[in-house]
User: Which sequence fits this backbone?
């Protein structure tokens, strides 16, 4: 499956950057602490909001953990839910205060390079290298978690974004097939707004660079490129500018998106787990919604027309192939301050074994990190997954795997979101984009603004 | 009855006119006052009204002042605290604990200092006063950085004790300045008379000074209470992610931050947080006005 | 303070003329009381608790902020893996070259000016109104105003965000119903007040004025009560209208109060934090930061930069202290040192 191929691209990119390929021996071992002692409690930080099916899944995993490792029979596993948009604040809090730190944390796969370099997650090379599951992992996904020859996390699942829509709405508006070009996207959105007055055509939010990237890549642009360890910002290139202009025009020129989405993520305000475009789509106020298949967990319980949900890949500028999408996903890491690293790893090995990671992925519409499982096609019988599956064939990660990307985009600085926000509020194109580009370049290279 | 002259109206007519104009004026002023009161009260009333509305009514195209089908479900979700994992009573307990202890401590400390300044003349008196005036103005969001680093090394993070210390310290200047006027207002003759009668300093304090300063203590306690109960920056920074120790303002903000669209719930949380304070204020309002007028304006 | 009549040490002479009996030895308590009285240190003991608290929790951190502002202090330094690095003035020069700093400073200054002016104007008008009302109505309006003042800032902030929310907010509905000659109309439907700086700070100004005007009103009312009514009456007899009466009679007499209120308002409104934090949706919107929020975000988002943030904090403090000097002088003139 193409996920493997794009993973190869990641691997190649990282090899360029000097990271050791999967399988190179690591020289340092993680600090072993209390490997024999059984902890009273292990805290796991999960990203997002609690969902009953995930709670059930986790309970099952904990039961297996207790059975497989009888020495941890008495260890309680405590799950804390952290919204994506505040995860760096909470990690910072835990590290800086030394209190309430988790033992295991889920991280976005693009967080791993940043957090590893900041010392948030521990070096788990010796555990990974002696793990039976290591060989079946998608090599590119694992390579993402490697820095200077050491592993700092393991991949848990992958996912991509596409456009959610309703088949009955498309039929009623006279749209025979999903749009494959940007122009078609606009026309279809306009048709939908005409057929269903009072709704919004598409959510042109400003704070989801993972989705916006598809527009840049769909015009043939790159957000930033890296060569010999130095990053150059490409936002001012013609292709990037085309994409930026188009995205901003969705709001300013074509009025397909309401003004309230400016400054928001796909879930609403920063920090919220619901209340934004996702709620609007679920309640029928938004016709097309860009998010991953995991969005089913964030849709309101009283959503309308669940049976008509479907997906199509984000179109590229001129078609016919869809735009490349960001190969997202989550990793599992051991928090740097945890006192029970062996126990943490044991739990991770249960959470991330082939069976469990596949069942988890199926629950949430993700892709498991094991090549064999992906290629055996796990999503028959879930019609809305087809768009995501198609999109996943064309995945891309750079520049999101830059060491300082999380800082630049959604940790401390919000360079691209703020740029889009300013543009949607009427700022002049050239000056805004070039100052954002300069800032992006500086932060990617140095981690701070200057 | 005076004969009506051609141009000058009679005294009665003039009297009537004056009466009418002044009554119109009074009615006009009253109307204005009522308008001011209504506009001022509106946000609070809207908060309470939304708290009782079911979610179907939050986004109605035309806002209705009263809920059509009032419900307690928003309050229930706030009290259960499922979004954060702890019930409302935990946060109420934390808030009251921190507030009451810091009010008591700051009142005691400030009273002692007020006695010193009001009753003695000593070398550094002016320095002390100026220091207190300046200290009042140091911004909390600036000091919080250093306090965070200090508390971390003192292991006072994620601790209500740390909050109590900070609240007490920051409440002392305002409390002191108000109490000083009250202590100064107690006539020295009373104390001197008691001293002549053989009372020791402690007895003079407990039997003479304290009862007379008591209304001032009430007024300043109110200020300290309001400060500690509402305080946000230090609680946000020092309690971090330790949700079990959150105070009420943090709970309301957490509810708001995580639950973006649950306006009924957010308003219910805000109502449960605000109403006790407002009720308390209405009750002591008259005493408070007296305290404000005599104590605060001067200094 | 209090003079006691506790026994002084010394001999007790017998009226019959026998040699004096040696006095009983003094207790520790008596001796310490004598020492205290002789050296006049009683006030210092009374001041000690407040001094300890304030020195430890306010003055010492303030000094630390100044010290940190010359250092490069981040997470590694906090945890202890890397020693502190002194960087001299480079934090300050970085700030001065940072467009985000200047933007946040501009926002702070402009919003403070707007908030202070409007709060004073509204508060004074309401105070004047209260002065003219009958006692029952005055008590009612004053009580209602006190409720607005007493509302906790967190609550007031979420209420105003709710009032201004695009879906279901009263403000947008009301504005869309206004006639076009008042600049109303459909363009206000769905208008978001919190996603760019000008609407957000307009909302914040209304919020701060709502919570701040009662204090001004009641202070002005108290001040008005001290003006003898003959002054107003004689001015009215001389034919002065209410506007002139205010500026020629009332304002000059109340100027000391206004000065204090003005300075206090500037200090409070320049340092406004909680309301901004909630209205702009925590720390995710960098283009709407004021100086205080910018400094907080620099310190408490990953990766934390405590040194740089301390430099920002120091600048914020200096600005406030400059204003405070004016307040201290006005207070002293008003008799704060009496």
Assistant:
């Amino acid at each position: 499956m193409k996920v493997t191929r794009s993973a190869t691209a990641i691997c190649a990119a990282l090899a360029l950057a000097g990271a050791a390929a999967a399988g190179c021996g690591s020289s340092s071992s993680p600090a072993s602490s209390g490997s024999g002692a059984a902890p009273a409690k292990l805290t796991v930080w999960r990203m997002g909001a609690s969902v009953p099916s995930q709670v059930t899944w986790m309970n099952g995993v904990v039961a297996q953990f207790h059975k497989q490792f009888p020495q941890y029979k008495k260890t309680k596993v405590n799950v804390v839910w952290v919204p994506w948009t505040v995860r760096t604040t909470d990690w910072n809090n835990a590290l800086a205060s030394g209190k309430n730190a988790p033992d295991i944390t889920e991280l976005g796969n693009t967080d791993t390079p940043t957090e590893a370099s900041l010392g948030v997650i521990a070096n788990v090379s010796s555990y990974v290298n002696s793990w039976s599951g290591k060989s079946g992992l998608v090599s590119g996904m694992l390579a993402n978690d490697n820095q200077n020859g050491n592993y700092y996390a393991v991949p848990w699942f992958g996912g991509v974004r596409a456009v959610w829509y309703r088949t009955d709405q498309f039929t009623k508006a006279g749209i025979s097939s999903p749009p494959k070009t940007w122009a078609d996207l606009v026309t279809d959105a306009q048709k939908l707004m005409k057929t269903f007055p009072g709704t919004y055509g598409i959510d042109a939010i400003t704070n989801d660079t993972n989705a916006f990237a598809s527009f840049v890549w769909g015009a043939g642009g790159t957000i930033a490129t890296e060569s010999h360890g130095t990053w150059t910002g490409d936002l001012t290139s013609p292709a990037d500018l085309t994409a930026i202009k188009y995205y901003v025009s969705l709001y300013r020129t074509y009025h397909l998106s309401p003004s309230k989405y400016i400054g928001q993520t796909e879930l609403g305000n920063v920090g919220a787990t619901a209340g934004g475009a996702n709620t609007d789509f679920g309640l029928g106020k938004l016709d097309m919604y860009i998010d991953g298949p995991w969005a089913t967990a964030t849709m309101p319980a009283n959503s309308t027309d669940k049976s008509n949900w479907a997906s199509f890949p984000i179109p590229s500028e001129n078609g016919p192939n869809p735009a490349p999408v960001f190969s997202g996903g989550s990793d599992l890491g051991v928090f740097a301050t945890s006192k029970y690293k062996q126990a943490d790893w044991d739990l991770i090995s249960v959470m991330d074994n082939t069976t469990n990671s596949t069942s988890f992925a199926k629950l949430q519409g993700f892709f498991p990190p094991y090549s064999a499982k992906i290629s055996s096609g796990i999503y028959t019988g879930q019609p809305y997954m087809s768009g995501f599956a198609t999109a996943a064939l064309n995945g891309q990660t750079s520049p999101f795997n830059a060491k300082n990307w999380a800082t630049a985009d959604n940790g401390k600085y919000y360079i691209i979101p703020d740029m889009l926000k300013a543009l949607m509020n009427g700022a002049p194109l050239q000056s805004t984009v070039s100052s954002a580009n300069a800032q992006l370049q500086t932060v990617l290279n140095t981690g701070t603004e200057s | 009855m005076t004969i009506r002259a051609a141009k000058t109206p009679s005294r009665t007519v003039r009297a009537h006119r004056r009466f009418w104009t002044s009554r119109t004026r009074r009615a006009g002023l009253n109307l204005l006052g009522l308008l001011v009161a209504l506009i001022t009260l509106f946000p609070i009333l809207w908060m309470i009204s939304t708290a009782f509305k079911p979610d179907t009514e939050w986004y109605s195209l035309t806002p209705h002042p009263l809920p059509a089908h009032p419900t307690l479900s928003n309050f229930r979700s706030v009290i259960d605290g499922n979004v954060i994992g702890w019930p409302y009573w935990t946060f109420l307990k934390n808030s009251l604990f921190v507030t009451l202890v810091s009010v008591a401590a700051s009142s005691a400390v400030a009273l002692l200092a007020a006695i010193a300044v009001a009753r003695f003349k000593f070398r550094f008196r002016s320095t002390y006063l100026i220091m207190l005036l300046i200290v009042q103005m140091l911004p909390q969001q600036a000091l919080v950085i250093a306090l965070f680093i200090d508390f971390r090394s003192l292991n006072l993070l994620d601790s209500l004790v740390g909050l109590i210390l900070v609240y007490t310290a920051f409440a002392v200047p305002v409390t002191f300045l108000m109490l000083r006027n009250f202590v100064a207002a107690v006539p020295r003759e009373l104390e001197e008379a008691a001293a002549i009668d053989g009372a020791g300093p402690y007895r003079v304090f407990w039997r003479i000074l304290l009862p007379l300063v008591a209304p001032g203590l009430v007024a300043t306690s109110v200020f300290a209470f309001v400060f500690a109960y509402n305080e946000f920056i230090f609680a946000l920074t020092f309690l971090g992610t330790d949700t079990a120790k959150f105070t009420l303002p943090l709970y309301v903000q957490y509810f708001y931050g995580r639950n973006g669209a649950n306006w009924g719930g957010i308003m219910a949380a805000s109502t449960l947080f605000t109403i006790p304070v407002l009720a308390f204020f209405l009750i002591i309002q008259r005493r408070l006005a007296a305290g404000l007028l005599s104590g605060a304006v001067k200094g | 303070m209090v003079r006691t009549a506790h026994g002084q040490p010394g001999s007790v002479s017998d009226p019959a003329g026998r040699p004096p009996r040696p006095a009983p030895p003094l207790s520790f308590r008596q001796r310490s009381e004598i020492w205290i009285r002789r050296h006049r240190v009683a006030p210092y003991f009374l001041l000690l608790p407040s001094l300890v608290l304030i020195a430890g929790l306010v003055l010492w951190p303030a000094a630390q902020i100044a010290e940190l502002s010359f250092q490069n202090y981040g997470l590694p330094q906090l945890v202890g893996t890397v020693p502190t690095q002194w960087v001299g003035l480079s934090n300050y020069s970085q700030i001065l070259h940072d467009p985000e700093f200047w933007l946040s400073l501009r926002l702070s200054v402009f919003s403070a000016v707007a908030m202070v002016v409007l709060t004073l104007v509204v508060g004074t008008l309401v105070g004047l109104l209260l002065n003219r009302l009958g006692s029952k109505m005055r008590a009612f309006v004053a009580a209602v105003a006190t409720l607005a003042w007493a509302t906790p800032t967190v609550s007031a902030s979420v209420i105003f965000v709710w009032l201004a929310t695009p879906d279901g907010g009263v403000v947008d509905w009301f504005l869309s119903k206004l006639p076009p000659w008042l600049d109303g109309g459909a363009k206000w439907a769905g208008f978001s007040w919190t996603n760019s700086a000008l609407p957000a700070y307009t909302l914040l100004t209304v919020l701060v004025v709502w919570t701040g005007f009662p204090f001004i009103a009641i202070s002005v009312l108290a001040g008005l009560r001290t003006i003898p009514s003959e002054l107003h009456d004689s001015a009215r007899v001389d034919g002065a209208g209410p506007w002139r009466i205010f500026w020629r009679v009332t304002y000059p007499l109340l100027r000391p109060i206004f000065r204090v209120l003005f300075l206090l308002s500037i200090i409070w409104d320049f340092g406004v934090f909680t309301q901004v934090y909630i209205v702009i949706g925590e720390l995710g919107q960098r283009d709407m930061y004021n100086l205080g929020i910018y400094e907080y975000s620099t310190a408490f988002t990953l990766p934390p930069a405590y040194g740089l943030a301390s430099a920002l904090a120091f600048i914020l403090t200096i600005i406030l202290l400059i204003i405070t000097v004016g307040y201290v002088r006005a207070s002293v003139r008003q008799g704060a040192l009496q």
The interface with chain C takes residues 85-86, 88-89, 91-93, 95-96, 118-120, 207, 258-260, 262-264, 269-271, 407, 411-414, 418, 421-422, 425, 435, 447-450 of chain A (CB under 8 Å). Chain A is about 40% helix and 15% strand.
